[in-house]
Amino acid sequence: MKSRTQHLREASHSWPQPDKQGDTAACLFCDTIHDLVDIQEGEAAYCKRCGNIIYQNRRASLVRATCFSISALIFMLVVQFLPFLTLNAAGLQRELTLINTTTSLMRTDAPILGASVLVFTILAPFFLICGMLYSTTPLLAGRCAPGAEYVVKWVYRAEPWNMVEVFLLGVLVSILKLAQVADVHINAGFWAYAGAMLCTAAAIAGIDRRELWDRLELANES
Amino acid sequence: MNPDHQKPIFKKAADRGLAGCRTCGLMSPMAKQSKCPRCHSRLYYRKPDSVENTLALVAGSIALFIPSHLLPMITVTEFGVAVDKTIIAGMTAFWLEGAYPIALVIFCASILIPILKVGALLWLCAAAKGLIHPSPGMLTKIYHITELLGRWSMIDIFVVGILVSLVQFGNYTSIVPGPGALAFGTVVMLTMFAAMNFDPRLLWDRLDDCNRRAHIGKFAKTFFSPKSK
Ligand SMILES: [Zn+2]
Ligand SMILES: [Zn+2]
Predict the structure, then answer these.
(1) CB B35 within 8 A of CB B47
(2) What is the pLDDT of residues A124-159, one digit of tens each?
């Protein structure tokens, strides 16, 4: 015997979908056409031909995406004021904060490099986090923020240019490089940035693209 | 009927006149509109001029890869004496000092990954053009790995930025980025754009072409060959 709540949960295992939408999906990697199937929370639909994920139903997707975006935003804001590394050499002390990498490259005749580092380590992560927050928070109340479809489109386009994890490895390599000539310590900023990295990844992966777009479309209609 | 011809037949969206949106996944008929009604992205069956664009970007990155390793990555000034350092010089210094892990990280990020990435992209382009027999299953995996690994090469640029900002002790020691850093950063960005421009669906199209040709060949053999011996 199944209880009533169980029935209800099973009846609504997929996210709400717009009616007029076609009942097929194509694999992004081999273009094989598939009929849409309802999947349980935590499951994923794979391509029959090439095995890539076509869509997945993430658990508590909206809530998770929103909460992880908020924590990622807090981490990112905190990171701007905390030093990453402290270096002691010959009685002199220097501290490295995130923005220093950009400003010092700009100062030393490498403006293009400085600008790209600014984009990869600060602007892209901020845009991803704020974009997710901007689109998912109103969706919790079933509403669509104005222009959210453009924001979400650019969030997914900006995703490969978010290089927080690469920068973290870069910090570790620089520590090893400098350890021979100076006394280097990891500081709080490093850990906050690592937290921002994990939360951003969890926010983006927390909700499937297809689900986010379906929800946006529904909220736009109503 | 041959039992190995009982393989499931996969229908392609493009054959039905449908284009799946790359951004939001909505299927739309191509004939009616060229923009996705839901997210306003451009619609296409296959990325236009995908192989040509990829090859052009790969050519650019190969051209810049050589100067990026010949030109100095950083210039270290100690007590007024300036020394240029290339990526390879820095790496060998670490290796000789016995700092093997860091030498390996630098080797992978600045030499191995770019070369593997360019090689993989050329291979993918050749397969998409039908020059080599396509094996899309493996090639799609290679494409995934290429997309995933490419960004890690940027680590060199970040290390340069960190060193430049930390090691500024006035007249004692200072580090300034060299032209090699800019060249290398451009290489990484070009290869990333190249990987984004490649359309893996072309690989499966070539496989289907091959299967169709083989099928027609078999058909021709059974019907047009002399039956009596
Ligand atoms: Zn597929
Ligand atoms: Zn779309």
Answers:
(1) no
(2) 999 999 999 999 999 988 888 888 889 999 999 999
ipTM: 0.87
Nearest-Cα distance to chain A for B158, in Å, is: 6
- CATH topology assigned to domain B49-201: Butyryl-CoA Dehydrogenase, subunit A; domain 3 (1.20.140)
Tell me the C-alpha distance between A70 and A203, whole Å: 9
C-alpha A214/C-alpha A217 separation (Å) is: 5
Please, are residues B90 and B75 in contact by the beta-carbon 8 Å criterion?
A: no
CA distance A170 to A186: 13
Residue of A nearest to B192 (CA): A160
The encoded tokens of residue B88 equal 């390879």
Name the token pair of B34: 């060229």
Average pLDDT on A43-72 reads: 90
User: Could you read off the pLDDT of A67-119 as tens digits, one per residue?
Assistant: 999 999 999 999 999 998 888 877 778 888 889 889 999 888 889 999 999 99
> Once rounded to an integer, what is the mean pLDDT over residues B183-200?
93
Q: Where are the domains of chain B?
A: 1-45, 49-201
- pLDDT (tens digit, 9 = 90+) per residue, B194-215? 999 999 999 888 888 888 888 7
pLDDT beyond 60 at B1: no
Predicted TM-score (pTM) above 0.80 = yes
Contact B39 A104 (CB under 8 A): no
Chain A residues lying within 8 Å of B176, measured CB to CB? 108-109
Rounded to whole angstroms, how far apart are CA atoms A112 and A123? 15
The shortest CB-CB distance from A96 to any of B16, B39, B162 is to B162
Q: Which domains does chain A have, with CATH numbers?
A: 63-206 (1.20.140)
User: B73 contacts in A (CB within 8 Å)?
Assistant: none
Most A CBs within 10 Å: which of B40, B44, B155, B207, as the mutation test of the A interface? B155
Pairwise CA distance, residues A51 & A187, whole Å: 43
